[in-house]
Amino acid sequence: ILFVGLDAAGKSTILYTLKLGEVVTTIPTILCYLESGLNFNAFDVGGRCKIRPLMRHYFLNTDALLYIVDSTDDERLDDALSELCQCLNEDELRDSIFMLLCNKQDKPNAMTAEEFMRN
């Protein structure tokens, strides 16, 4: 499973929560790392602007892509949508399962997945 999204969306936090069963504090992912020890292998790709083009190197043979959005970040909604559309149009991902996770739903100003997709 390839975990992608903009920086600070919560990709690493979600991955470690799945692995450890608890929320842990993480630092920004610089490039990409492989996490195993789950029932699947997960690649967490950093979401900073300069790193995003590198995520294409992980598309080949990806079974599933989990696109994670910070649902409280209205200012970067257009960037998140643009990156999601780029992933959806990649030939290497045409047979992959796509999942969208609108993270940080516990925050009072969080948009729902439906609101995100309407934008």
UniProtKB/TrEMBL annotation:
SMART domains for this protein: ARF (SM00177)
One GO-annotated biological process of the protein: vesicle-mediated transport
Entry keyword annotation includes Transport: yes
Record GO terms (molecular function): GTP binding; GTPase activity; metal ion binding
Annotated residues for binding of Mg(2+): 12, 29
Pfam families xrefs: Arf (PF00025)
Family: Belongs to the small GTPase superfamily. Arf family.
Protein name: ADP-ribosylation factor
Source taxonomy: Eukaryota, Metazoa, Spiralia, Lophotrochozoa, Mollusca
